[in-house]
Amino acid sequence: MTSTATGGPLTAEGLGARVQAFLADHDPASTDRLKFLRARFDAGLAWVHYPEGLGGLGADPSLQPGVDAAFAAAGAPDNRPHTNIIGLGMAAPTILRFGTPEQQRRWLRPLWTGEEIWCQLFSEPGAGSDLANVATSAKPAGDEWVVNGQKVWTSLAHDATWAILVTRTDPAQPKHRGLTFFVCAMDSPGVDVRPLRQITGESEFNEVYLDDVRVPDAQRLGEVGQGWAVTQNTLMNERVAIGGGTIPRESGAIGELVKVWRERPELRTPGQHDQVLRFWVEAEAGRLTAERLGQQQAAGMPGPEGSGVKLTHARLNQQISSFELDLLGDEALRYTDYSARRPVLVTHSESPANWRFLRAKGNSIEGGTSEIMRNIIAERVLGLPAEARADKDTPWKDLPR
Amino acid sequence: MTSTATGGPLTAEGLGARVQAFLADHDPASTDRLKFLRARFDAGLAWVHYPEGLGGLGADPSLQPGVDAAFAAAGAPDNRPHTNIIGLGMAAPTILRFGTPEQQRRWLRPLWTGEEIWCQLFSEPGAGSDLANVATSAKPAGDEWVVNGQKVWTSLAHDATWAILVTRTDPAQPKHRGLTFFVCAMDSPGVDVRPLRQITGESEFNEVYLDDVRVPDAQRLGEVGQGWAVTQNTLMNERVAIGGGTIPRESGAIGELVKVWRERPELRTPGQHDQVLRFWVEAEAGRLTAERLGQQQAAGMPGPEGSGVKLTHARLNQQISSFELDLLGDEALRYTDYSARRPVLVTHSESPANWRFLRAKGNSIEGGTSEIMRNIIAERVLGLPAEARADKDTPWKDLPR
Amino acid sequence: MTATPVTGDLLYSEIEDDLRASVRSLLEKQGAWDAVLARTETDETVDRELWARLAEIGCAALAVSEEQGGAGASWREAAVVAEELGRAVAPVPFLGSAGLAAALLVAVGEQEILPQLAEGGLVAALAVPFGTAPGAPTPAVELRGELLHGTVRGVADAVAADVLLVPVGNDLYAVGAEADGLTRTPIVSLDMTRQLVDLTLDSVRGRLVASDAEGAVTDALRIGAVLLASEQLGLAERCLETTVEYLAIRRQFGRILGSYQALKHRLADLWVLITQARAVARYAAECAATGSADLPVAAALAQAHCSVVAQQAAEECIQLHGGIGFTWEHPAHLYLKRAKSNAIALGTPERHRAALAELVDLPGVPA
Amino acid sequence: MTATPVTGDLLYSEIEDDLRASVRSLLEKQGAWDAVLARTETDETVDRELWARLAEIGCAALAVSEEQGGAGASWREAAVVAEELGRAVAPVPFLGSAGLAAALLVAVGEQEILPQLAEGGLVAALAVPFGTAPGAPTPAVELRGELLHGTVRGVADAVAADVLLVPVGNDLYAVGAEADGLTRTPIVSLDMTRQLVDLTLDSVRGRLVASDAEGAVTDALRIGAVLLASEQLGLAERCLETTVEYLAIRRQFGRILGSYQALKHRLADLWVLITQARAVARYAAECAATGSADLPVAAALAQAHCSVVAQQAAEECIQLHGGIGFTWEHPAHLYLKRAKSNAIALGTPERHRAALAELVDLPGVPA
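Structure tokens for the assembled complex are given below, as produced in the milestone run.
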């Protein structure tokens, strides 16, 4: 029984009924977690806007929060989405859009249930913001490709079963052509994952060395040479992932600051008061801007404000945490642990202020630098001329590096 | 009797003796002002670093302040340097450097005494920061040139006897070539001076229309086609003119602000206090930077800090005067007079705060915009690559406009 | 941690879009900037003709109910009109009459003036200095016997007012603009597109409109702050548009000015600030329209933020136009003067931040 | 209006240039950043060997007279050394021993420790938390009978100290680093190139060095602030240089990164800030060297300004390096941690501005 079979589009009520029916058949209290999640997927109640047979029912995406809430209310296990951010946010929409039916059947279910974690092999040391400047090569060898190169800033690579991978298959083409997109098994011979240590002391990210790694052509997503189109689609999904739901007032960096300000009056000085209020105003303005963006998206008018929200978020995280250290004074000079290690997942507020200060420096770099965000706004929103560039039509192999 | 004739370079003592001798011969109390100034020029005590016969004695420029001070102490009239800023600061060094002996003899004495005021016909509506983009044409006609075009941002044009003038004599050459530099009599037929009204209501500046104005070739400064080199030299003199002497602490915009802050405690609010102190710190840092630049120049090491001093000066004038209006609150909403008129020369502190706020907006535009200053610093000081430009080698007449 | 109030609708409704289109079309015909500039140098600094046209399409009392003769819309729609008037730096008494005075008359349940104000036949103004923040003390006009005495300097929208609403202690009086003993002196104002007036009351007879009106005056000033924020938003948007248009055609050093990255990034930053200004201004209008308990926070937030953004937009507009932006014959100075004047009007950003300190429990150093 | 003090010499003398060259050459050989980084993860966070070399060229006591065993130079020369050590984020006890401790010992006329400190055989540290501003209260270490009791957290340059100078009320005591009852616990510090130490004194025997020493402690902290400003200047300069060098070779989108105008303008602004930092740091050093009455102003000004500039320089260094600047294996984080730590050290910029309010007569709201 599907939405189309019953004649009309699925409504919130209709979906609610399905959830209740499912819960009646699968008692969350007594069903094995994985078994429960697989069944939920098979019932089309995983991501309801996905097609039937792939975890969804072709419903409107706005109905998803209601479904999730109903499962949560019943005490059902979730798929721990924060452990598979790249899988759910980037790999899945890409597989849905560009994958063959076989690929979709193979990958989407264990991705959604969290049985298989995904990572992303896009960034390279020589590329930076110029993401298309991929040097990792893939050369055909029978029904396989042989991949060589180095990727960087790969989160979850040490946990991942699969990676989405961009490679250069034709260096004689200009930069944005000649790229091809694959799915790569992270346990393939020649894949070497090394932790990349960051300024906090920990290693959230990895470098991944690819040394004669063989990837079956059956794991190609999209056509040979169309990797840039696939990549851009993937990245667009990353940016859309912002928004959704009311953001609490005083969440994030400002919340930490005002907590200290309220709870520790002995730290306050007169000269800092107006600055605290300035930050409060900026943070609240930023929050309402994100709220408004969410409303626009919900109304089917996704605006370009996302780049601005990201810019502001990065700037405020940095400025506010820096100010918090000044407020804390001597206490801020004590750190917790610089030793090389994998980070433990904790909420931001459990982290010490100076860890948050250091970590925030990455916010204006990761996921598109603040400079790239400003270019995007100036060119795509304001319509100002693009930067002069010399790399668009020259064969990639002939570009200076 | 000259410095070389007596064997050694002129010392402060030697100059002091000459001043006293001159004063003994020309009692400031009883001598006609103009007669006194002409005699001072002829005695080489006008600008002592100029050559003999041209108002100087070939002395070290650092000796000038002592001479001026000695004349001032004796109650002697000065040449009202603030009424002839362009003449003294820009025209005179240019005439000295590029003028023929006849030109120097004709122009320098009445310039120094203030009998003849000078103005500058450089800027054009179509040029802006791109100063070399001169469209005003000069075409040869016998031993004269016929000049046509429009100049703008000309201060003192309505008072001036003479103008220094940049024209395009060969539009088939690239932009920076094909320019020629003249001295133009402001009472020539075809010179039309119109006040240019600014945001304060007044007209400090003028537009000058040049309609078949005939300029004798004898009034050309430098070679035909070398006008850009002459212009650059003139502008360099403008920038060097900064500096010199100790700048009082709390002078300029910060002085006005702290005066209000101190004298009117009822206007203070707690949230503004730290901002006043921030401005004080920035202004004092700016002052000491200018002092240090002056010391460098005095030590014969003129640094590029001048561009930075100008940038900071403009920014602080704007920010501090804006803040002062907030402090004044309702009072700042009252203006004095927007009527179209020539400004009266008053010291800045006699002007109302909101006049200073409005006038300060020009500080980041006049004499080189803040954007140009940043380009200069980035390229000439930091050695970063110049902006890509397409106008260097193309014939001027073929450039898009 | 303060609780998160319901956000409400931050977008523009179709009705609001239509209203905007009507007002903009009217302003394009009757409120071009060069006419606005020329008017600042005449004796008639208010465009009464334009105001009449705006009143015809309901702008004189959008948030007044239909029973009271108003348009029966809300402060949301009024805020949209304020945006458009800000874009045009229009010299009409919208803020004073349709904003402050209307809000005050509604709040005290006044029945005589309001219907006339609503149909556009009468302009009212609140007789307090334009810089008065919500909750700040108002000037000491006093009642001696039955007559009013006092001075109120720098009142907005009193040039064209027929009635002045005068706070007297905790009472509110209405005074006819032509009343004996009342002197109205228009002053040279920083922003001549909203000329201020000094009022002197020397034995003036007024009509008691309400007692116990202090709270209503504060509420009216708060509504004014909400509308002013939208006016600032509109002005900021116009400054950005004008600047982008200019940079897209002006060339220097052989290149379109708008291709220089440093300028692009500054305009991008300004655009981001404007998206924020829009969000806070819309939130304030929504709170005003729905009577949200968060209105005091929303109004202070909107003023604290939009004042800063509008000033920055006007400043960038001048700077990026170069010399021409510094001249009288370019509209940039009108925006600058309006932006600076608005930043001080109804309380500076710093005053609004100080208000937030109380409202959201962020106190200063303990005494 | 406050009177303008004599500016003095803000340039570098030839002797200072020579000293700088010697120190820089030494640091290039023995203080490369990768060695500095590696050392932060060892038990020996101080480079004693490097300190010994620096002492050989007189850096242990530049401003101490030759009669007292010092180099007989002044705080001007010491400030030049601080600049170089800031550039290199060098892990040596210069600030604590050659700065704070030497200034304090000279001020109180101490004769025993000073000669040893001056020849480099002994390192001393002032036992106050590193964040202590000049004039701020010091921790309550007390004398019970003849023995000292108390806790002092976060002391700078005490890792390598042989002697600790401990303020006890208005008295100053010297305590040997190995004294019975003294516990020194090095802590994980934000800036591991200057590891801080917690001190616990539990019945420790000290030697009374001076009574009535409170003013001398304040003066010493002020000298520390002067040197710290120069350290911040050197660090900021290094950050700018490194960034310019990187942008001059790194390409993106087919162009040298340093050709992008938005980046050029940000670096130009940073350069301007650094010229100002140099002026205020030099002025502070000149005031310290000449005993100018304006020293309190100069020191507060230098700290208020240089703290901000050094942080901005370190932040731009990270941002403009992109991802690589966020990694452990690049020196940018060493600069950032030093800059942030220094901004808090000896008082935050805001504390120094509050001090200026008193010093230059810019009071707050009247009580």
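Chain B touches chain C through 54 residues (CB under 8 Å). Residues 96 and 131 of chain B are 23 Å apart (CA to CA). Further analysis is deferred to the final report.
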